[in-house]
Amino acid sequence: xxxxxxxxRCGNQEERYIGYHNGIPYCRRCLxxxxxxxxxxxxxxxxxxxxxxxxxxxxxxxxxxxxLSLLKRGKNVLIHAVTGxxxxxxxxxxxxxYLGLGLHVGFxxxxxxxxVDLKPRIEEAxxxxxVISVFGEHSEILQGDIITLTTHQLYRxxxxxxxxxxxEIDAFPYKDNPVLKSFFRxxxxxxxxxxxxxxxxxxxxxxxxDNGMVLTLFERYHKNPLPLPEYIHCYxxxxxxxxxxxxRKYENENKPVFIFTPTIEEGKKLFRFLSLFYSDGEFxxxxxxxxxxxxxxxxxxxxTYLVTTSILERGVTVKDLQVIVYKADxxxxxxxxxxxIAGRAGRKIQAPKGDVIFLASERSTSIDGAIKEIxxxxxxxxxx
Length: 384
Ligand SMILES: [Zn+2]
Fold this sequence. Notes:
The protein is α/β, with parallel strands linked by helices. The protein has helices at residues 58-72, 92-100, 112-125, 178-187, 201-209, 239-252, 264-274, 291-299, 335-342, 365-380, and strands spanning 18-21, 24-27, 76-81, 105-109, 131-134, 146-150, 161-167, 188-196, 212-217, 230-233, 257-260, 281-284, 305-308, 322-325, 356-360.
């Protein structure tokens, strides 16, 4: 009998992805990933230490310590920490420990924008380390002391990481992507830490099966509760004017606003309407070239509102931000997406509160689930 072909790169053994060239099998599932692999014997600099210029909260400190002690016992860890808990800081102690032993440390996340934002933060925490970032158009330099990268680039680091942190495990495009999951598994030769504010049941089951433990942190670093979303019923003909009246209120109060729309089309149409009344806004989506500069202008206060698709659902922190979700009962707004979106509000210690408005024509299961989930975190935050 012929031996079953298993793709050496992504682990695929499904016949439908296997092609044959001159009778030799190859994998079509990961064909688009090719390029250099790094030298796994690369050695990192000595004397890299963590130099954090601000203290962690008591609870952050506790989770950070527990994480490291689990790793030392050879365990993997999933940290379930609410939005605004300060997730990144939870892994610094562990990173410092591995770096101190001269081991390979990486920090991966599904989205490029997040890698770009992450690098300066890691550099600040580990000033002596050479921190590099690797993503699609930025993959010339592959070796450093700490490697920040997209999950798409993990295939270059086969059997490389002694500690790999993977942030936003439930985010697109990593979620439900067997090729990227395989790259992740193959790149780890030691242990890993997964981070998420909204892990799925499957994520929790998977890590328990893989010699791992789940740690939770349901308190934001500034100790205030998560803003609880308000559901506002809207008939379809009312949407535009409802959004406009909310925007008018926030404009008068001088508060910046994100308005989330389920699709690019809906976003464009809504923005066209709103811009007739308020010119200090923009529309951002994965397709808009200007998105990074518009987000920067928004952060600098040059813009007061952004109409956005799910692209700003995660990873963005803006002081005193108010949040409107337009057509929140749309099927693309899952419970996890709504929890992430709600988590954009009240993140700064100087402005720990903020409105989160779900505009919808019905209270969908996701809306209901998201509100209840946030209530549960707020209840539990004092207990743990
Ligand atoms: Zn493959």
